[in-house]
Design brief:
Blueprint: H1 14-29, H2 42-57, H3 67-71, H4 78-94, H5 101-114, H6 120-129, H7 146-167, H8 178-181, H9 188-191, H10 197-200, H11 204-214, H12 221-224, H13 253-259, H14 275-280, H15 282-290, H16 295-309
This protein binds zinc ion.
Protein name: Reverse transcriptase
Organism: Candolleomyces aberdarensis
């Protein structure tokens, strides 16, 4: 029998994959961040490793959108995670007695910052200013007490949540918009979480179909026509991405699942749920289904069958 570490990553459930990430992978990616704050291109190398892991775990290609890889698995982006650990080290140093080496080194770094010299605190400021979408403004009072440093850590968590929340607000991810799912933009624990559907949908093929739908890696025309241009270089407008089954101007996710005659060929799911409600309010209905222990696996099976019809 193969051990957890010998099986290909895509064969693991996502919850098991998250455990694997925090066991042998994460320690390498955060190694040394207590002492070294990333202010150069080294962070990008580590981020590539993390994204590669998450895409293999969720069976997604290299060009998949980054934000849902974090928001749906609960795995933190490295820039924010490493910075929080660095600040945790600063907070720990601040609690030490004045003669402790860590406290003395930290106070020296604060003094260097005050006289505009490079050092650990200056690197912290640079890293905070480099956070994507919502940089954290810094002044030296933010590291002069244990409470102030904790406030700074909390602001990094809020910055992380806002960054990822905004990353979901693209037209390519109509089923993951935060507002529709009740996510709170400033709430780290609301935006980043291992989602329930990864626990309830256990059949690997069905889970992949669900991930393809939610993460915009499906074969439906609305997504496939984004990736090509017309002969004259112009893009295909939304109403120029027709349904292959019924000729509707746009083959969207909701159309393929709940509106199109093509999906009527799939048995099982529509008898289980209120199809009328799904047509009237499809996105809210999908999120209700994904939170339901029994409906989520049936829905994922339905998706698998629908994608067999709307194949690439
Ligand atoms: Zn159709």
């Amino acid at each position: 029998m193969q051990s957890l570490f010998q099986r290909p990553l895509s064969e693991h459930s996502v919850p098991d994959g998250v455990k694997l990430y925090y066991a042998p992978v994460d320690p390498y990616l955060i190694y040394g961040c207590e002492a070294i704050v990333n202010v150069d291109k080294g962070l990008a190398v580590l981020e590539d490793v993390q994204l590669s892991f998450l895409r293999r775990l969720t069976s997604l290609p290299k060009n998949s959108i980054k934000a849902p890889l974090h928001t749906e698995t609960g795995i933190h982006p490295l820039a924010h995670r490493r910075l929080q650990i660095s600040l945790g080290q600063a907070k720990d140093a601040m609690t030490q007695p004045p003669t402790h080496y860590a406290k003395r080194a930290f106070l020296d770094s604060i003094e260097l910052y005050r006289i505009h010299k490079t050092g650990w605190v200056a690197d912290i400021e640079k890293a905070l200013n480099s956070l994507p979408i919502d940089p954290v403004l810094f002044d030296i009072t933010n590291v002069e007490s244990e409470k102030a440093i904790q406030d700074l850590i909390d602001r990094v968590r809020v910055s992380c949540a806002r960054h990822l929340y905004q990353g979901l607000e693209t037209s390519r991810l109509p089923l993951l918009h935060g507002y529709d799912r009740g996510l709170i933009p400033d709430d780290f624990d609301s935006v980043l979480k291992l989602r329930k559907y990864f626990k309830t949908v256990t059949a690997p093929a069905h889970r992949k179909a669900l991930t393809r739908l939610l993460f915009a890696n499906h074969t439906l025309a609305v997504e496939q026509f984004r990736r090509v241009k017309k002969a004259d270089g112009r893009k295909f407008e939304t109403n120029e991405r027709p349904c292959r089954s019924c000729g509707d101007p746009t083959e969207t996710e909701v159309h393929a699942l709940f509106v199109c005659d093509g999906s009527d060929r799939v048995d099982g799911f529509k008898e289980t749920v209120d199809s009328t409600r799904c047509k009237v309010d499809p996105i809210i209905s999908i999120h209700f289904i994904l939170e339901h222990d029994d409906l989520a696996p049936v829905f994922a099976k339905f998706l698998y069958d629908v994608f067999e019809i709307f194949t690439g």
